[in-house]
Each structure stands twice: as structure tokens, then as C-alpha cells.
Amino acid sequence: MQEVEKLDTQISDYETQIDELNTKIEELNNKIQESQEKLNKAQEDYTKQQELLNSRLVAIQEAGENFLFGFYIIFKQPYRFNF
What we know:
single chain, mainly alpha, 0% strand
């Protein structure tokens, strides 16, 4: 009879450990979910910032081409300047 009680106690201890581990697993899964959501948000923000940067660079490049083209036209006709 003592052996059966000992085994029951061990089983109960193992069940308690399993419950504790399941709780820890659930907590870790929640943290993983939160981290994934933060990562997704950061990725979205990064993508938006990258798109804005690309738009700005295109605008700067286009403005620069026009600016440089204007200089090209001016200096192509040196007679317009009295140096």
C-alpha cells in the first residue's frame, strides 16, 4: 500500500510540474506573439520610411537634373555672359 501512495505522490508531483511548464509555455507563446506584432509594426514603419526616402531621392534627382540641365544650357551659350 505504501508503494501505491508513493507512486500517487510522484504522479501528483509530475502533474504539478506539467501544469507549471504548460503555464510557462503559454506565457512564452504570448511573449512571442507580442514580439511578432512589434516586429511586424517595425517592418511596416521601415517600409513606409523607405518609400518616403525613395520618393524624396527621386524628387531630388529630378530637381538636380533640371538644375544641371539649366547650367548646361547657360554655359553652352557663353555669348550671353560678358566676362
